[in-house]
């Protein structure tokens, strides 16, 4: 993918993988909106810090308006509460779902119209890495076991 004229939005770009991805995009010539709940924590040279809380609808809409020239979206923001799904507190499970599922969905939906309006094909990716994941990020989707014969 040619990045020289790309305009990227990287969520959770203030640390970790998001920070690294934003830095790599800048190094390769892209304009980068580096988002964080607190944009003052974005310390990368060459990026445009942008406030974005993926769990707040108005924040998502405002970021999409500001970065309406985006051609590439990297949904990186996320949390890990280490809450067991069955035995853990439902509020913590809901927070994880809001942040890690509904948040990226809202961001993707908000940026899709601006991406369609650009000459470049829109691209969106989600980054997730969490301890305890049992299936690799890439590879075949597990299939159901065949039923035993008659």
UniProtKB/TrEMBL annotation:
The keyword Lyase does not apply. It comes from the Bacteria. Pfam families: adh_short (PF00106). Coiled coil: none annotated. Keywords: Oxidoreductase. InterPro entries: NAD(P)-bd_dom_sf (IPR036291), SDR_fam (IPR002347). Residues 125-141 have a biased composition (Low complexity). Gene3D superfamilies: NAD(P)-binding Rossmann-like Domain. Residues 125-150 are annotated as: Disordered. The keyword Thylakoid does not apply. Belongs to the short-chain dehydrogenases/reductases (SDR) family. This is SDR family NAD(P)-dependent oxidoreductase. It comes from Streptomyces caledonius.
């Amino acid at each position: 993918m040619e990045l020289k004229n790309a305009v990227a939005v990287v969520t959770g770009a203030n640390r970790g993988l998001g920070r690294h991805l934003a830095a790599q995009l800048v190094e390769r010539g892209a304009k980068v909106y580096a988002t964080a709940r607190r944009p003052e924590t974005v310390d990368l040279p060459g990026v445009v810090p942008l406030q974005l809380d993926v769990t707040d609808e108005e924040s998502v809409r405002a970021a999409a308006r500001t970065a309406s020239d985006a051609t590439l979206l990297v949904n990186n923001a996320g949390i890990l509460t280490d809450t067991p799904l069955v035995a853990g507190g439902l509020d913590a499970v809901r927070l994880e779902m809001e942040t890690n599922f509904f948040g990226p969905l809202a961001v993707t939906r908000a940026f899709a119209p601006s991406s369609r309006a650009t000459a470049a094909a829109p691209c969106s990716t989600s980054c997730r890495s969490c301890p305890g994941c049992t299936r690799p990020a890439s590879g075949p989707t597990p299939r159901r076991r065949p039923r035993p014969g008659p």
